Amino acid sequence: MKLEKISFLMSMTILCSNLFSQTISGKIDQLSNIEIKLEGFRGLKNYSINLSITDEKGNFTIPFSKEHYGVAYLISNDNKPFFVILQNEDIEIVGASLYQKESVKVLKSPENKSFGQYALDHPKREQAITAWDYLEKFYKNDSLFQNQKTPLQAIQNEKSRIKNEDQAFLNQLPKNSYVLWYLPIRKLISDVSIVAQYRQEEIPSTIKSLRSIDYSDGRLYRSGLFKDAIDNHFWLLENSGKPIDSVFKEMSLSIDAVLNSLIKDEKKYNEVTEYLFDLLEKHSLFQASEYLALKVLNEKSCTVDNNIARQLETYRAMKKGNTAPQIRFEKDYILDQTKNNLKNLSDIQSDYTVVVFGASWCPKCAQELPEITKLYPKWKEQKVEVVFIALEDNKNQFTEFAKPFPFISYSDLKKWQSPIANDYYVFGTPTMFLLDKKRTILLRPNSVKQMDAWVDWFLIQGNIKK
User: Fold this and answer.
1) Average pLDDT over residues 10-23
2) Is residue 277, in this structure, part of any structural domain at all?
């Protein structure tokens, strides 16, 4: 690193020391003349708080202020974060490397001493409980061990002891401690995968606890757990082992719980709505996406961002059972490989039509449209036609891209301003809709693979009501 940059950053650190109320300082032996950043969390994102350059011996000082209180992390050139709690106290640490967390010792800051001790001990307790759970099932269910009451009782006693020890650690923390609030909620979120795999009997109570989280709580917003709380909550619902209809009912209850806690905070309400909608879409949980969209669009006490509202509107306008808008083809812009001389979408004489929105500039389209080409003969045999709507603004590019496709291709050369894309509420590519001959929306496939599975199951295997 150039000396001029080091000198400048050190000068800025000294200047900031006069503006910020607390500092995190220390000595990391393996970090000599290295930039260390302090970064925090705001909801779903992280941000830079401040930075420093270590001296030749690894000493550093980074100031921070009250507006940054919460969970943060130190990070150097190895990109391995070391987490800390920022509160109304200075922090001092020493160690060999931020990467080797067990080598780092907190010299100053009761909050971080408690945080570090629990972070070290709690995973060991969880591992022990998981191991005892495994043995307990043997002694309860296997005929070879069922008569061994003494070992079974000993296992149960040891599990209780470990849980009580964990709780006792929390009970001795000061009542106003951030760590006292943070550790149980982090435990709840981090235990989700263990509960799903090894302690299924705890799934209902874990879901109930996840629904009780207050997403408007400023402590959560700055904890680094905001995103994990959403992800793990809906992952557990999806992997709870319940029938799919029950899963969607549970997701509706959870969507209500999450958004109702944010109803008075429009910024967070919009932030969570957008993220949750994308999450459900990525996991192909379209019934839950539809419930979320309709709930948010019908909400009267909170203003929804216009961009989000329009994205959600696709579920009200283009939901299953609705009639898809008509598409009119101008002959100069259609590549009709089927030789049907089409004027309108409704002219297609097939039982089903897949309308695919994509473009030559879309990387995923370049993968999926050739896949559709390979599958097209099979789909065509099952009376499934394909119409590709290209969001292009250059006729030559459209023609070059679409010419190899054996199905109908069309572009009005208006890209995102295309009335067709607007009518179908298309916000990304590729986007697909499966229609019947009356243009009734049957499915919104999230991939070619899902569409092909529909053909196999409903048409080839005959699992559809004609």
Assistant:
1) 59
2) yes
